[in-house]
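Structure in, sequence out. Go:
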C-alpha cells in the first residue's frame, strides 16, 4: 500500500487555523535554528504569542508538532509537483519534475539542510520523520512514474525506473550539503539528466 500523499486537505479554518498557523511558523523557525532537542515548547509558545497549554491543546506533544511543522514546510513542494503533472505533456514531465525538485531545494536550502543533518545524526528525529518523509518520497516516485508511463509500456519497469531516478535526485541533495561547490552540483544535475536520457532515448527535453 502506498504511503499517503502530503497535502493540505485537512487544514482547519477560522481562528483555530490562524492560531495553528502561528504555532507552526514559530516551530519551523525555531526547529531550523536550534534543532529538535534545542527547541522548547515554551520558546515556540512565546514566539507564536500563545500559551504553552495552547500549543499542547493544538498539537498534543512536541513530536506531533515537529511532524506537522515538517509537513507544513513540504506542502508547497507537493503542490508544485501536482501543478507540474497537470500542466505538462507526459514526455516533458520527467525533466520538469527534476527542475521542480532542484528549484525547491535551492529556495529552501536553509530549512532543508538542518533537517537532513538531524535525520542523519539523530535516531529519534529519524524515527519521528520517517512517516512524512517516506510519504513525500513515495508521492514523488508516483509522480515520476506517471510521467514515465507515457513513454514506458511496462508499469513495473516504469515504477523501477522512477524509484531509481528519485534515488539519484535524493543522493544529489545529500551530496550538495557535503560538497556545495556549484560546479560539482551542476555536473551531478546534468548527469542525472544524461542517465534519464539513456534510460529513455525517446524522451526529448525542451
Amino acid at each position: 500500500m502506498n504511503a499517503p500523499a502530503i497535502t493540505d486537505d485537512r487544514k482547519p479554518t477560522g481562528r483555530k487555523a490562524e492560531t495553528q498557523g502561528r504555532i507552526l511558523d514559530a516551530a519551523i523557525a525555531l526547529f531550523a535554528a536550534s534543532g529538535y532537542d534545542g527547541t522548547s515548547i515554551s520558546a515556540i509558545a512565546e514566539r507564536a504569542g500563545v500559551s504553552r497549554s495552547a500549543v499542547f491543546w493544538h498539537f498534543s506533544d512536541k513530536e506531533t508538532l515537529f511532524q506537522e511543522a515538517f509537513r507544513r514546510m513540504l506542502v508547497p513542494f507537493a503542490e508544485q509537483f501536482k501543478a507540474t503533472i497537470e500542466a505538462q505533456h507526459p514526455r516533458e514531465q520527467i525533466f520538469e519534475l527534476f527542475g521542480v525538485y532542484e528549484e525547491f531545494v535551492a529556495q529552501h536550502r536553509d530549512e532543508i539542510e538542518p533537517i537532513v543533518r538531524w535525520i542523519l545524526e539523530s535516531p529519534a528525529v529519524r524515527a519521528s520523520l520517517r512517516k512524512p518523509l517516506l510519504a513525500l518520497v513515495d508521492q514523488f516516485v508516483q509522480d515520476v512514474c506517471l510521467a514515465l508511463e507515457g513513454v514506458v509500456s511496462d508499469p513495473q519497469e516504469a515504477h523501477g525506473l522512477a524509484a531509481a531516478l528519485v534515488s539519484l535526485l535524493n543522493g544529489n541533495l545529500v551530496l550538495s550539503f557535503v560538497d556545495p561547490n556549484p560546479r560539482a552540483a551542476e555536473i551531478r544535475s546534468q548527469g542525472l539528466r544524461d542517465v534519464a536520457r539513456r534510460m529513455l532515448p525517446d524522451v526529448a527535453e525542451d
